[in-house]
Amino acid sequence: MLRVTKDRKLKYVSLGISLNPANWDFSKNEPKADCPNREYIEMLIADKIKEYSAKIIELKATNQEFTSTSLVEKVCVKHTNRKTVEVVFQEYMTSLIKAGRKSYALSIKQTYNSIKEFCHSLDFYFSEMDVAWLKRYELFLREQRLAENTIGIRFRTLRAIYNVAMEEDAVSQDCYPFKKFKVARLHQDTIKRALTKGDIERVLQFQSSNRYMRFPIDIFAFTYYCGGINFTDIANLTQANIVVDKLIYKRQKTKKLIKIPLQPQALTLIKKYHNTESPYLFPILSPFHKTEEQKANRIHKVITKVNDRLKQIGEALNLPIPFTTYVARHSQATVMKKAGVSTAVIREIMGHSSERVTQIYLDSFDNEQIDEAMKNLL
Description:
There is one protein chain. This protein is mostly helical. It has helices spanning about 40-60, 70-75, 85-100, 100-120, 130-145, 150-165, 195-205, 215-225, 230-235, 265-270, 290-315, 325-340, 345-350, 355-375; strands spanning about 1-5, 10-15, 25, 30, 240-245, 245-250, 255-260. Helix 3 (about 85-100) packs antiparallel against helix 4, helix 8 packs across helix 11 (about 290-315) and helix 13 packs across helix 14 (about 355-375). The longest helix is centred in the C-terminal third of the chain and has 25 residues, at about 290-315.
């Protein structure tokens, strides 16, 4: 075995041969003079030491960080059989797009672009992403003044891609840096994103001379009346999703089937935007948008405009929180919880994968309950 030591961390590499202990000089750490194939074994050892020494010199000359584990990874695995970070990212994003998960692919692309900006190139191997590399990347993100949760998303995405690389044998599990680099710490509780019923009523009654302000409010209202339906899901709704005054659709994100009764207010909005020339319930997508990429780009463009206008409305009404379409999703969940609806039922309405996700939406409400309860001590 060849022992590689760096920063007091040991890594052993098999040379692929074995000897009878009687033929090994343990004091000199070499084969004895009468050892069979002595010259061949000495040459093998010398060549391996030379190979590792050359790699160490190369890494130091280019100021690249490395550990004993990553050094072994760089030397032992033939590069012709390995995938670079660039290849793994691109292949995974392509597979997501083919699976119809365009939104998630775009999220992955954000991390891809971020790392590319940090490294200038992704033409390297995952074994080089050690703890020191991750710390430098974190510093890079902080220097960009990104929010704590945004940094957390970048690292959770990177960790997911690293796991994909391990599954594809693009990197050894021994190199996995996230055992020491804890991503969970990169999280910050978000501010409350739910409105009271009173504030919601103020939004619905908002008047403006700008006719483009009405559509954002109507989208907010439809989201609120339809169990917090996501904007992307709204965009994809057609007449086929309405069955006997019920809205039945499959969530784009979780693929979960949602069935909810259509409230009179929601039906009114559907009739308001009815267009015989388009299969869609709302004027977000049109027959022109055929490919998944065209649809995703169009949805992104429209929701950006909608949220910009909602922000203006929120400022005009002096709402206590930043106003976006997502506020409707949080608000309806909180209103239902305050009305006594169980978390399990709210989960079904919102199409969450678990009650834990639903609870995230309700945490601010729970905190209010705690505040009120504590007042009983006074």
